[in-house]
Amino acid sequence: MATAEPEVTPNTSNSEEEQSDATGQEIVNPEDYIKHPLQNRWALWFFKNDKSKTWQANLRLISKFDTVEDFWALYNHIQLSSNLMSGCDYSLFKDGIEPMWEDERNKRGGRWLITLSKQQRRADLDRFWLETLLCLVGEAFDDHSDDVCGAVVNVRTKGDKIAIWTTDYENKDAIIHIGRVYKDRTSLLSENRSSPV
Ligand code: MGP
């Protein structure tokens, strides 16, 4: 999504009474309205289990974003995972990677999986999914963030799942690093509980 273009009136004075120009227009700090770019553009997808259709036909792109502000606007606009019907998924993937095994960037890949008990839907699902989203858009995996393709939350009667998908099962350093960081970040959410990954 486009970032707002600043319309800055030059401010040559520091004095408070000169915070408007000759036409009386207010001078605004560009920081107040330029959106903060993310390192990647991301696409959020929704899956609804309609058994009369193929798996791929049930997958829908919701929206793409590439700024911090647009991420939160989208996140705040959609339902929490815990409110979705069983059988639904959200997937957040880098723009250009489809959230399916068949994509070039996924087909040699793997995933770090969190399996949640039925009881954890109420207390943990939304917090863990948000933390997963923040790990992705915040590029939490240092030099190995390039190995991350995306993440999926599956809302299921038998127990919900959250996974980060990586691009190549042979990139051992990247996979271990991503797993360690993800485990640390999600363990912080679940003190006194067993490790989720
Ligand atoms: P699922 O939605 O990943 O997990 O896969 P679920 O529902 O918990 O089931 P389980 O098999 O893990 O117990 C369910 C089914 O959806 C798979 O067996 C496939 O038929 C289909 N499916 C899931 N994914 C992620 C893909 C995909 O990437 N490509 C295709 N073609 N089908 C998929």
From TrEMBL:
PROSITE patterns: IF4E
Gene3D superfamilies: RNA Cap, Translation Initiation Factor Eif4e (3.30.760.10)
Pfam families tied to this protein: IF4E (PF01652)
Region of interest called Disordered, as start-end residue ranges on this chain: 1-29
Stated family: Belongs to the eukaryotic initiation factor 4E family.
GO molecular function, one term: RNA 7-methylguanosine cap binding
Keywords: Initiation factor, Protein biosynthesis, RNA-binding
Record-given protein name: Eukaryotic translation initiation factor 4E
GO CC annotation: eukaryotic translation initiation factor 4F complex
InterPro entries in alphabetical order: TIF_eIF4e-like, TIF_eIF_4E, TIF_eIF_4E_CS
